[in-house]
Every structure is written in C-alpha cells, then in structure tokens.
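Let us practice reading a record.
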Amino acid sequence: MSRQMANERAQDRRINTMIRVPEVRLIGPEGEQYGVLETSAALQRAQDMGYDLVEISPTAQPPVCKIMDYGKFRFEEEKRMKDSRKKQKIIRVKEVKFRPITDDHDFEYKVRNGIKFLERGDKLKVTIRFRGREMAHQDLGMRVIDRVRDLIQQSVAIIEERKPLFEGRNLIMILSPAKKSVARRDTPDGGAQGDDEEIEEIEVLEEDDDSDDDEEDAK
C-alpha cells in the first residue's frame, strides 16, 4: 500500500462527532467489549478517558468503534507503511529483442545494451521473435540466443535464471546479474541493505521498443 493510499485510508476513517449512526458496538482501548451503546454515550465514554472514538468497521451492523488515541494510531499506521516500503526492492527486467537473422550492427548494439542493463543490476529478458515461415528454422534462433549469452558473459558475470524456451513464436531467455558483479544499492531511506534483511523483490518488465518489428507483424 502506498503512503498516499495509507493517508487516504486514515482520512476516510470517521472519528468522534463525524460518526453519525445512532448506535455502535464499542471496544475499549485495551480490547474491552462494552457491547452496543448509543453513539453519544460511546463518545462521552471516550472523552472521559481522554481518547477519541474511532470507527474501525463501518459496514458492520451496528458499526464497530474503538476508543483510542487517534493521533498515535495514525503515526503508527504510517510508520508500518514506511517500514513495509523499506523491505521492498524494485527489480527492473529490461528486454532486448532479436530476429533469427539480425544484422551485425543491430545485434552488437542490443548486446551492448544488455550488458549495460545487467551491470547496473537489472535482469535481462532476451527475446528472439519469429515470423511466419521462420518457425521452421528454430535452430537459427537458438544460435542467436546462445551467441547473445556467450558475448554478454564475457563482459559481466551472469546467472541464467531461465534457459531458452519457446512461448508461442518467441524464444525467451532470462539472465540476471551475479550478486558479486552488482554494486550494493541503498534502501529507499538512504541506508545500506543488510545482508540478513528479508527483502521482497517486485519485478517490473520494461519492454524493448521494437516498433519496426511490431509494424511488420501487423501486416
């Protein structure tokens, strides 16, 4: 959940005089069950304790409210959201596309891009795209993808995360950088990641802009 979503959720929560239903099921600050009370009585009880009356389950019949320090609740909720974001790492998956027959200049350019992506810590999706009768020559695609891998690993240490496999008319391989070849990255709050910290990795695919090939496929 993003910080904006967390704030909106907290702001949408009705408190004190914003709660306009006639009665609520009341929970005390330590989880005490007070049962169903008139809303005015529940609010008075919260105020007598020096706390707020907060609606925590608006769809229940009647709605459930809890007596709590709402300012402290908001602070702790935002802190949980911030801690959750610290434990997430966005892994970009960059894609480079080839044809079974690719001219040397285009081939070398895309291999250089692939090396650059891996060196900065991104994963690399290598795609060989086949058209029409090219599917009868799948061996050409395998040669291309093997050549791509061999050239890349001459420049950067890699792990073949997914061996070449066909998906429809595409031959796909996934490469990731070996950990020792990637510079250590900082966490979003500016600190360095600990080796023993559990990090949730979220992969985001950034596709290769291969508009010329797309136009040809559409014909």
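A brief commentary: The chain has two domains: 3-79, 88-179+199-218.
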